[in-house]
UniProtKB/TrEMBL annotation, chain B:
Family under the similarity heading: Belongs to the TMC family.
Keywords noted in UniProt: Membrane, Transmembrane, Transmembrane helix
Organism: Sciurus carolinensis
PANTHER family from the UniProt entry: TRANSMEMBRANE CHANNEL-LIKE PROTEIN 2, TRANSMEMBRANE CHANNEL-RELATED
Compositionally biased residues, Basic and acidic residues: 43-99
Keyword Disulfide bond attributed: no
InterPro entries registered for this protein in UniProt: TMC, TMC_dom
Polar residues bias spans: 758-769, 792-802, 835-844
Topology relative to the membrane: Multi-pass membrane protein
TM segment ranges: 229-247, 277-295, 369-390, 443-463, 589-611, 632-653, 689-713
Molecular function GO labels: mechanosensitive monoatomic ion channel activity; voltage-gated calcium channel activity
Protein name: Transmembrane channel-like protein
One example of a Gene Ontology biological process annotation: vestibular reflex
Region Disordered: start-end pairs: 1-121, 736-844
Length: 195, 844
């Protein structure tokens, strides 16, 4: 334990990060190691290229979008706290049985925030709506070349129709939440971080 | 991998716009505008080779999960994701939080105690706080304005919590005990997770089948799943027969395959193993086990399917948002995933399309009648052909030195019919224009009729033969007795020395009809197997090779044009499998070794067909989901099982066994062995009980009772399913009402703010409702309204014909509840007069 905390002390600003993200010290340490491993040239921050070398992201049709989510506001680098903040969306939800202080902001790993993270993967222009066009783009990435444009469009139309409730031809975050109501997001969007 | 990725990404844009599905004769491009996953180019062996490579720990774990996610039945992965959370937990152990613990906090606790056995200060404080809180809750429980049930559960939870965590707060022993318990719990969970992984890995051919599924769709995969299941069943049957009959009889030689090899000694060996009895019981339990397993899996299939119907609200949204598996880190798996997502989208499109098809009813009807007529003609023709051949073969059997062809004519003709009729039916079925899934069922039904007709004609002929043999046997029996009598009583032999028993070959032998029947079945099975394999080799593989390699030097495009590649014939293969199984069931009583042969056959077919399908078939032109056809297969299997039970039961109950061969020789009927065992080997009171049980006075009421129970259960299940359907309808209606409300409201507010961009919005349906309120009813509008009332049959908003009708139209409530549809003239053929979008598109 002693050596562990001394390691953890290496992480800059560890207490704040911990409070914000809710990760345990051990997980933070683990993430820090990962961060350092990804940061190949020891810059102290990660660039897009660093993240692109991750295999699972490279084959993922939404990989670029995921990487984008690490770089809000067009910045080109992400430091450790930013890195952890994104990953905090995937922290398993712990069973706080509703005793949380309502004044505090919702933790990053709440269901809503998880969903919001997923939502912004599709919301390319970040206007709070997944438009038909955006959906089409994502779909193209997902099915590759094997489906005709016509079919792609009809799939998109159908999806929008299903989820769209207020008739604006786009899927808002609320509608998105609703269409995934039955999905067990808490489980699906959780990553177990090894100790 | 980044190279691969960049190659993929721009591709859709580079690909031409619509219309590239059509064959472009000039280009030597695969006809369907997609990389042919199954074409020989793909080199399947290389694939599997690569798959075998060792990957990083993380990767393989991720893959396993992805496999597991996609496993289950023949649905796309996203469906599974909707499964109830409990199932989820089992399926997704890997990437999920290590099984979210019941008790609060334990995840953070565990992170603390993972290093040593102690807890950090902070965590202790948190626990302390919580425990205090719970204690307070317990104390104030009485005053809370909760219902009793809630109070009780809360109380129990709180008490359990306090009990559990108080230990952690204590010093020394209590804390250590607690830490130990946590450690054990963690170990146990990890063990369970590992065990689950292990179980998944133990499912044979899972990877192969998933591979096929992702390229050919769930319907083709369902055949392989069925094949695997069948293999399992046969393995059990084989174990039964092998363990209880073949091994006890002693060393195995060729003839152990057949009935006549076994003798009728009541007991063998020092264990006094009762072979005839065992033989009889094994024969019965082969059927018993098969019946049980088929019915059980049918029942479990239906259970799965009942909970499914309600989930089709967001089919496309689910596919769109949740189908990618984010743990895939391997490009090959990613390829498979791409393929499977595409396939599942295609399946949904076909489903949508079919439910909204506009067609000329009269023409379709005429064509369907015509097709059925043609097929009945074919069936009659094949029946007559078999009858004719069987009659001829009876003549041949009387003649001496017949040629090889004449001896095997029946089998050859049957195999040929089985080979050529199904494609013929398929050609005819193209006239009918059914949804592929329904078409598959018709096709299955027809081939079923064909095979059944063939099999029963064959059986009847066989029965004729058996009766003939039985009548001959009487005379042979007399001769044998006479010979033996003469042998033992002949003079000139010293009476003090007992005579050596006469060698069986020196006595005239009966024909042993059971073995003859067994041989017939064996011949049929083997020839069937050979024909299947040859068909695959010639019809699929050679054709694929020819198309592939001759395409370079041919005057038209072979891949796009006439011969093309073969599609995997699901119906034919399924039925082939089912009837093969029927033959095994029938034959296994006369030829116990048949099951062993069948096990081998299924094993080879698994590999052979997997290879063939991946190397030389192409996906169906219209991919479709196999939802629940598994149960249809099972139903057919059950029917075949029953039909194959009949002849066996008939022979057991009413034909005398051969007098000098087989375990039942010398008995009047085969089932006498049962009586004999009861009389000789059981205590007498058991015999009495059996006799009592066999009394018709008891059996008839028992049967009646069973009928009553079936009737009762049936009516209960009917009423339950009705209630289920009604509830589902209610939910649907509620959702639609809600949606339409919102749509009206949202629209109204949206119009206040801005007007322009909506006019080009594609989903006109939502607009429709608001328009009705504002503008007076025009003719076209009332038509569309009416169309909406027609529900899913109509076609409406989408600009193209691919995915027309939204299933949940705002106005699709029952007409009575529709506030704004009082237009009587709108009842005229709505879906033919209005051609979709022109009537629909809002005009402002």
């Amino acid at each position: 334990m002693g050596s562990r905390s001394s390691h953890a002390a290496l992480i800059p600003d560890v207490e704040n990060i911990r409070r914000e993200t809710g990760f345990s010290q051990a997980s933070l340490l683990r993430l820090y190691h990962r961060f350092r491993a990804l940061d190949r040239s020891k810059k102290g921050y990660l660039s897009r290229a660093d993240l692109q070398q991750i295999g699972a992201l490279a084959v993922n049709p939404l990989g670029d979008r995921i990487i984008d989510s690490f770089f809000p506001d067009g910045s080109q680098r992400v430091d450790f706290s930013g890195f952890v903040r994104v990953l905090a969306h995937f922290r398993p939800i712990d069973d706080d049985t509703g005793v949380r202080d309502p004044k505090q902001p919702e933790p990053l790993n709440s269901r809503t925030n998880k969903l919001r993270f997923a939502f912004q993967l599709y919301d390319l222009d970040q206007d709070g709506k997944i438009s038909r066009h955006e959906m089409l783009q994502v779909l193209r990435l997902m099915v590759g070349v094997q489906v005709t444009e016509e079919q792609l469009e009809s799939i998109t139309d159908r999806t929008v129709q299903e989820a769209d409730e207020d008739g604006d031809g786009a899927v808002s975050f609320l509608e998105f939440t609703k269409s995934l109501e039955k999905m067990d997001i808490e489980q699906k969007m959780s990553i177990r971080i090894l100790k | 991998t980044s190279g691969r990725r960049s190659a993929r990404k721009p591709a859709p844009k580079a690909e031409g716009p619509p219309g590239r599905r059509g064959a472009q004769p000039g280009q030597k491009e695969p006809p369907r505008g997609e990389p042919r996953p199954g074409s020989p180019r793909r080199k399947p062996t290389e694939r599997t080779g690569r798959r075998g490579e060792v990957r990083g720990q993380e990767r393989s774990a991720a893959e396993r999960t992805s496999e597991r996610r996609r496993k289950g039945d023949d649905r796309a992965s996203f469906k599974e994701q909707r499964a109830p959370p409990k199932k989820e937990k089992e399926a997704l152990r890997e990437e999920e939080t290590w099984k979210r613990p019941r008790k609060p906090r334990s995840s953070s606790l565990a992170s603390g105690d993972s290093g040593g056995e102690s807890l950090s200060e902070e965590e202790l404080a948190r626990i302390l706080e919580q425990v205090e809180e719970k204690k307070k809750l317990i104390a104030t429980m009485r005053n809370k304005p909760w219902p009793m049930a809630k109070k009780l559960t809360e109380l129990r939870d709180a008490q359990a919590f306090v009990e559990k965590y108080e230990g952690a707060l204590g010093k020394g022993k209590g804390q250590r005990l607690y830490a130990y318990r946590m450690l054990m719990a963690k170990k146990w969970i990890k063990f369970k997770r590992d065990f689950d992984n292990f179980k998944t890995q133990c499912i044979p051919w899972e990877m192969k089948i998933k591979d096929i599924e992702s390229h050919f769709g769930s319907s083709v995969a369902s055949y392989f799943i069925f094949l695997r299941w069948m293999y399992g069943v046969n393995l059990v049957l084989f174990g039964l027969i092998f363990g209880l009959v073949i091994i006890p009889e002693g060393y195995i030689k060729y003839s152990a395959l057949f009935y006549g090899y076994y003798n009728n000694q009541r007991t063998i060996g020092w264990l006094r193993y009762r072979l005839p009895m065992a033989y009889f019981m094994v024969g019965v339990s082969v059927f018993g086990y098969s019946l049980m397993i088929v019915i059980r899996s049918m029942a479990s299939n239906t259970q799965g399917s009942t909970s499914e119907g309600e989930n089709d609200n967001f089919t496309f949204s689910f596919k769109m948002f949740t189908s990618w598996d984010y743990l895939i880190g391997n490009s090959e798996t990613a390829d498979n995933k791409y393929a499977s997502i595409t396939t599942s989208f295609k399946e949904s499109i076909v489903d949508e399309q079919e439910s909204n098809k506009e067609e000329n009813i009269h023409l379709t009807r005429f064509l369907r009648v015509l097709a059925n007529f043609l097929i009945i003609c074919c069936l009659c023709g094949s029946g007559y052909l078999i009858y004719f051949v069987v009659k001829r073969s009876q003549e041949f059997s009387k003649m001496q030195n017949v040629s090889w062809y004449e001896r095997n004519e029946v089998e050859i003709v049957m195999s040929l019919l089985g080979m050529f009729c199904p494609p013929l039916f398929e050609t005819i079925a193209a006239l009918e224009n059914y949804h592929p899934r329904i078409g598959l069922k018709w096709q299955l039904g027809r081939i079923f009729a064909l095979f059944l007709g063939n099999l029963y004609t064959f059986l009847l002929a066989l029965m004729d033969d058996v009766h003939l043999k039985l009548s001959n046997e009487e005379t042979v029996k007399n001769i044998t007795h006479w010979t033996l009598f003469n042998y033992y009583n002949s003079s000139g032999w010293n009476d003090s020395v007992p005579r050596p028993p006469l060698h069986p070959a020196d006595v005239p032998r009966g024909s042993c009809w059971e073995t003859a029947v067994g041989i017939e079945f064996m011949r049929l099975t083997v020839s069937d197997m050979l024909v299947t394999y040859i068909t695959i080799l010639l019809g699929d593989f050679l054709r694929a090779c020819f198309v592939r390699f001759m395409n370079y030097c041919w005057c038209w495009d072979l891949e796009a044009g006439f011969p093309s590649y073969a599609e995997f014939d699901i119906s034919g293969n399924v039925l082939g499998l089912i009837f093969n199984q029927g033959m095994i069931w029938m034959g296994s009583f006369y030829a116990p070794g048949l099951v062993g042969i069948n096990v081998l056959r299924l094993l080879t077919s698994m590999y052979f067909q997997c290879w063939a399908v991946m190397s030389s078939n192409v996906p169906h032109e219209r991919v479709f989901k196999a939802s629940r056809s598994n149960n249809f297969y099972m139903g057919l299997l059950l029917l075949v099982l029953f039909l194959s039970l009949l002849p066996v039961a008939y022979t057991i109950m009413s034909l005398p066994p051969s007098f000098d061969c087989g375990p039942f020789s010398g008995k009047n009927r085969m089932y006498d062995v049962l009586q004999e065992t009861i009389e000789n080997d059981f205590p007498t009171f058991l015999g009495k009980i059996f006799a009592f049980l066999a009394n018709p006075g008891l059996i008839i009421p028992a049967i009646l009772l069973m009928f009553l129970a079936i009737y009762y259960l049936n009516s209960v299940s009917k009423s339950l399913s009705r209630a289920n359907a009604q509830l589902r309808k209610k939910i649907q209606a509620l959702r639609e009402v809600e949606k339409s409300h919102k749509s009206v409201k949202g629209k109204a507010t949206a119009r206040d703010s801005e007007d322009a961009p909506k006019s080009n919005s594609k989903n006109a349906t939502q607009l429709q409702l608001t328009k009705e309120e504002t503008t007076p009813h025009s003719a076209s509008q009332s038509q569309t309204l009416d169309k909406k009332a027609q529900g899913p049959v109509t076609s409406s908003s989408a600009s193209n014909t691919l995915l027309p009708a939204p299933r949940h139209l705002p106005g699709s409530r029952p007409p009575g509840s529709r506030p704004d549809s009082g237009q009587p003239q709108s009842q005229t053929h709505p879906w033919r007069s209005a051609s979709g979008k022109s009537a629909q598109r809002p005009s402002h």
